[in-house]
Amino acid sequence: CFLTGAAKLVVVIAIFLLTFYVISQVFEIKMDANLGHIFGNLPEAFSKILVYFLLKATKPPRYKCGISKACPEKHFAFKMSSGAANVVGPKICVEDNVLMSGVKNNVGRGINMALVNGKTGELLDTKFFDMWGGDVAPLIEFLKTIQDGTIVLMATYDDGATKLNEEARKLIAELGSTSIANLGFRDNWVFCGGKGIKTKSPFEQHIKNNKDTNKYEGWPEVVEMEGCIPQKQD
Fold first, then answer.
1. Are residues 83 and 126 in the same domain?
2. In the predicted structure, residue 209 carries a pLDDT above the cut 80
3. Does 135 share its domain with 225?
4. What is the distance between the alpha carbons of residues 82 and 209, in angstroms, rounded to a whole number?
5. Which InterPro entries match (predicted)?
6. What does the alpha-carbon distance between residue 32 and residue 6 come to, in Å, rounded to a whole number?
7. Which residues span the domain enclosing 80?
């Protein structure tokens, strides 16, 4: 690989420069002013080059969305997190593109949802539905419009369950969720599923709101999740 080749090059240069330096010191080789200036600075210049390549060689690689390992071919990398209490909004990233976040100013209290094309990984839409002070009807209607083959990513912020009814929970369950049936007031939940999925999704995290274990007084800790979504094949 590139880093291995670079490391070998650094070693070769190091041996050459150190050998030259030792010989010049032992035999007191006389050089003209220009050459003396150039070669006299070689140890310092080399040390800077060496440090650079060592840092490059030891720095861990960065994968899409900051996930812990690279995804195989024909998979989309994703990483997402729920909101933190009612202060910091959720974040959804797919293929190194942040689709929803507080910085993008497109998240809100309730259930936050991003739709992604299952074949191309292209963002189709983002929405959030207030499940505390809002109405569940817009959420239900939106869920009914999702087309087969669409990747659906959801994350709660503040409270994502109070206004949920049986119909809404059923529609979300059909996307592959198992925890939606038990999602309660101020629970933290992240989920990645798809329209037309035949099995339950492996991508789901749920933490219950419990005053005895909550990290933020009235809210549990943030839940995070990452993974590789299989690309839809024709």
1. yes
2. yes
3. yes
4. 13
5. FAM3 (IPR039220), ILEI/PANDER_dom (IPR039477), ILEI_FAM3C (IPR039475)
6. 32
7. 64-230
